[in-house]
Amino acid sequence: MATNRRARHDYAIADVVEAGLVLTGTEVKSLRAGRATLTEGYGQITDGEAWLYGVHIPEYALGTWTNHQPRRVRKLLLHRNEIDKLARSTAEGGFTLIPLSLYFSGGKAKIELALARGKRTYDKRHELARRDAQREVDRALRRRR
Protein backbone atom coordinates (compact mmCIF):
# COMPACT_ATOMS: atom_id res chain seq x y z
CA MET A 1 0.00 0.00 0.00
CA ALA A 2 2.77 2.46 0.96
CA THR A 3 6.54 2.04 1.21
CA ASN A 4 9.34 4.24 2.47
CA ARG A 5 11.93 3.79 -0.27
CA ARG A 6 14.38 6.32 1.18
CA ALA A 7 14.62 4.48 4.49
CA ARG A 8 17.04 1.81 3.28
CA HIS A 9 19.20 4.49 1.67
CA ASP A 10 19.28 6.86 4.65
CA TYR A 11 19.45 4.30 7.48
CA ALA A 12 21.36 1.15 8.35
CA ILE A 13 18.64 -1.26 9.43
CA ALA A 14 19.38 -3.50 12.40
CA ASP A 15 16.01 -5.18 13.07
CA VAL A 16 12.51 -5.23 11.58
CA VAL A 17 9.25 -5.58 13.54
CA GLU A 18 5.64 -5.88 12.35
CA ALA A 19 3.08 -3.88 14.34
CA GLY A 20 -0.65 -3.32 14.16
CA LEU A 21 -2.17 0.17 13.98
CA VAL A 22 -5.10 1.71 15.83
CA LEU A 23 -7.05 3.51 13.08
CA THR A 24 -10.40 5.21 12.62
CA GLY A 25 -12.88 4.23 9.90
CA THR A 26 -12.01 7.02 7.49
CA GLU A 27 -8.30 6.26 7.84
CA VAL A 28 -8.90 2.67 6.80
CA LYS A 29 -10.94 3.77 3.78
CA SER A 30 -8.24 6.23 2.78
CA LEU A 31 -5.58 3.51 3.11
CA ARG A 32 -7.63 1.10 1.02
CA ALA A 33 -7.60 3.77 -1.69
CA GLY A 34 -3.78 3.47 -1.53
CA ARG A 35 -2.98 6.91 -0.20
CA ALA A 36 -0.37 7.27 2.54
CA THR A 37 3.07 8.82 2.98
CA LEU A 38 5.68 7.32 5.29
CA THR A 39 8.73 9.45 4.47
CA GLU A 40 8.50 11.78 7.48
CA GLY A 41 7.24 9.15 9.90
CA TYR A 42 8.97 7.76 12.97
CA GLY A 43 8.08 5.66 15.97
CA GLN A 44 8.59 6.42 19.64
CA ILE A 45 8.15 4.54 22.91
CA THR A 46 6.60 6.67 25.66
CA ASP A 47 5.20 5.45 28.98
CA GLY A 48 5.48 1.82 27.94
CA GLU A 49 3.42 2.33 24.75
CA ALA A 50 4.52 2.56 21.12
CA TRP A 51 3.35 5.53 19.04
CA LEU A 52 3.70 6.47 15.37
CA TYR A 53 4.33 10.12 14.50
CA GLY A 54 4.45 12.01 11.21
CA VAL A 55 2.76 9.48 8.92
CA HIS A 56 0.42 11.27 6.54
CA ILE A 57 -2.86 9.52 5.73
CA PRO A 58 -4.94 12.05 3.76
CA GLU A 59 -8.56 12.70 4.63
CA TYR A 60 -11.09 10.39 3.02
CA ALA A 61 -12.67 12.20 0.06
CA LEU A 62 -16.21 11.05 0.87
CA GLY A 63 -15.84 11.53 4.63
CA THR A 64 -18.07 13.91 6.56
CA TRP A 65 -17.53 15.69 9.86
CA THR A 66 -16.17 12.39 11.24
CA ASN A 67 -13.06 12.64 9.04
CA HIS A 68 -9.67 12.21 10.72
CA GLN A 69 -6.65 14.51 11.08
CA PRO A 70 -4.08 13.57 8.37
CA ARG A 71 -0.98 13.64 10.62
CA ARG A 72 -2.40 12.53 13.94
CA VAL A 73 -0.40 10.38 16.36
CA ARG A 74 -1.37 6.71 16.02
CA LYS A 75 -0.92 3.95 18.58
CA LEU A 76 1.08 0.88 17.58
CA LEU A 77 0.01 -2.58 18.71
CA LEU A 78 2.99 -4.64 19.87
CA HIS A 79 3.63 -7.32 22.48
CA ARG A 80 5.06 -6.12 25.79
CA ASN A 81 8.41 -7.89 25.24
CA GLU A 82 8.76 -6.26 21.79
CA ILE A 83 8.04 -2.81 23.26
CA ASP A 84 10.60 -3.38 26.03
CA LYS A 85 13.22 -4.55 23.53
CA LEU A 86 12.65 -1.51 21.27
CA ALA A 87 12.66 0.86 24.26
CA ARG A 88 16.04 -0.52 25.41
CA SER A 89 17.50 -0.22 21.91
CA THR A 90 16.31 3.34 21.29
CA ALA A 91 17.41 4.48 24.76
CA GLU A 92 20.84 2.97 24.10
CA GLY A 93 21.52 5.77 21.64
CA GLY A 94 21.88 6.14 17.92
CA PHE A 95 18.85 3.99 17.08
CA THR A 96 15.43 5.17 15.94
CA LEU A 97 12.21 3.54 14.75
CA ILE A 98 11.50 4.13 11.06
CA PRO A 99 8.41 2.89 9.16
CA LEU A 100 9.35 0.81 6.11
CA SER A 101 5.99 -0.23 4.71
CA LEU A 102 2.27 -0.07 5.41
CA TYR A 103 0.00 -2.89 4.23
CA PHE A 104 -3.08 -4.97 4.99
CA SER A 105 -2.65 -8.49 6.31
CA GLY A 106 -5.78 -10.53 6.94
CA GLY A 107 -7.93 -7.42 6.70
CA LYS A 108 -5.95 -5.57 9.37
CA ALA A 109 -3.59 -2.64 8.77
CA LYS A 110 0.02 -3.49 9.62
CA ILE A 111 3.18 -1.41 9.57
CA GLU A 112 6.71 -2.70 9.24
CA LEU A 113 9.00 -0.79 11.64
CA ALA A 114 12.77 -0.86 11.44
CA LEU A 115 15.17 -0.31 14.29
CA ALA A 116 17.70 1.76 12.39
CA ARG A 117 20.78 3.91 12.76
CA GLY A 118 21.28 6.92 10.47
CA LYS A 119 23.96 6.68 7.78
CA ARG A 120 26.48 9.41 7.20
CA THR A 121 26.89 10.94 3.73
CA TYR A 122 30.14 9.10 3.02
CA ASP A 123 28.47 5.81 4.01
CA LYS A 124 25.75 6.45 1.43
CA ARG A 125 28.34 7.24 -1.26
CA HIS A 126 30.32 4.13 -0.34
CA GLU A 127 27.18 1.98 -0.60
CA LEU A 128 26.33 3.42 -4.04
CA ALA A 129 29.89 2.84 -5.28
CA ARG A 130 29.82 -0.76 -3.98
CA ARG A 131 26.50 -1.41 -5.71
CA ASP A 132 27.78 0.04 -9.01
CA ALA A 133 30.95 -2.09 -8.83
CA GLN A 134 28.88 -5.23 -8.17
CA ARG A 135 26.63 -4.39 -11.12
CA GLU A 136 29.70 -4.06 -13.39
CA VAL A 137 31.04 -7.41 -12.19
CA ASP A 138 27.69 -9.07 -12.89
CA ARG A 139 27.59 -7.58 -16.41
CA ALA A 140 31.12 -8.79 -17.15
CA LEU A 141 30.26 -12.29 -15.95
CA ARG A 142 27.12 -12.37 -18.12
CA ARG A 143 29.14 -11.28 -21.19
CA ARG A 144 31.71 -14.02 -20.59
CA ARG A 145 29.02 -16.69 -20.52
Question: Would you give an account of this structure?
Answer:
With 145 residues, the protein is α+β, with helices and mostly antiparallel strands. It has a single domain, classed as Small protein B (Small Protein B, Chain: A), CATH 2.40.280.10. 34% of the residues lie in helices and 34% in strands. The chain is built from 4 helices and 7 strands; from the N terminus they run E-H-E-H-E-E-E-H-E-E-H. The protein has helices at 7-10, 25-32, 80-92, 121-144; strands at 2-3, 11-21, 42-46, 49-53, 74-77, 95-105, 108-118. Strands 1-6-7-2-5-4-3 form a 7-stranded antiparallel sheet. Strand 6 and strand 7 form a beta hairpin. The radius of gyration is 18 Å and the shape is globular. 23% of the residues are buried.
Percentage of residues in DSSP E strands: 25-35%
Pattern of helices and strands: EHEHEEEHEEH
Specify Rg, calculated over alpha carbons. 18 Å
CATH topology assignment: Small Protein B, Chain: A
Secondary structure tally, helices: 4
Features:
7-stranded antiparallel sheet, 145 residues, 34% helix, Small Protein B, Chain: A, alpha+beta, 34% strand
Question: Secondary-structure map with pairings?
Answer:
Blueprint: E1 2-3, H1 7-10, E2 11-21, H2 25-32, E3 42-46, E4 49-53, E5 74-77, H3 80-92, E6 95-105, E7 108-118, H4 121-144
Antiparallel strand pairs: 1-6, 2-5, 2-7, 3-4, 4-5, 6-7
Quick take:
By secondary structure, the chain is of the alpha+beta class. It contains four helices and seven strands; from the N terminus they run βαβαβββαββα.
